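Most newcomers find our protein records easier to grasp once they have seen one. To make this concrete, we reproduce a full record directly below:

…
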Amino acid sequence: MKRTIEGMAAAGEEMIQKAIDAQRRLRQAEADGASPEEIELFRAVADLRYRLVTDHQLITCGKAPHILY
């Protein structure tokens, strides 16, 4: 990834798409009646992906999050 605004924005867009996809998988698992364990796994993945997007946005704005994972 280039360390330019365009490079960081492109990386952010990919991360956002992955977060959206993870949320869709969670909703689909819920609709399909997946086991509670499987739903919790999808929820954890979706939450992590959204947290990564938020952290990425904070870092690119020069405001690093308080906790880095």
Observations:
- Residues 2 and 8 are 7 Å apart (CA to CA).
- The chain has one domain: 5-60.
